[in-house]
Amino acid sequence: DCGRLNSRDRFWFNQYKQQISKTMAYSWDNRVKFVVRYMYDIDGNGTLDKSDFECLAVRNTVIEGKGDWNEATFKKNQEVMANLWNEIAELADFNKDGEVDGKEFADAVQKNCMNKPFAELPSAFKAFIHEAFKSIDVDGDGSVGLTEFRVDCVNRMAYKSIGDLDAAYNKLLNDEDKKVGGITLARYQELYAQFIGNPDEKCPAVNLFGPLEVIN
Hints:
Radius of gyration: 19 Å
Structural class: mainly alpha
Helix content: 55-70%
Strand content: under 5%
Strand order of the largest sheet: 1-2
Distance between the termini: 24 Å
Largest sheet: 2 strands, antiparallel
Low-confidence stretches: 12-17
């Protein structure tokens, strides 16, 4: 009972709880939940279905065009997202009900993405990652800098401190990233593959989408 502890012990008990919570936030299970909730489940109903990916095609087209609409870009995004949904359904919709819940998705990712480099991921996953990079690299210079990283993160989640976002970005960077001035497509692909496939919660790639919270 924390209420019966003296002030010093209460401090260390709270520090311990915070550390446990942080570890859980960056666990593989929680990262997969993050992908479901914030990357794919665009209507927020807790499951994935064809409608989510149709909406993602529209969203990505608007983001890529910075508000302008390009029908050719939309057609391409439609194809990418349709292929992604079909592949996710093939890999994860075990009961064939037209929906993929969190557990089904996690089981599929564990089987098909765990400890695999980007090159060995399912093809539609690779196409989605490529499109995700394009939506973040808004200036089209071929790398994601700090300002683009910030915008990407705040479009998904709420943060009380810009310092938390900046710290997450800096944890991602290796010496080569610093040399080229940001995260290139190849590096983003590598980090994304590790985000969904590396079980180590201390891997730098866990910071790819900013500070995480435990998802229930």
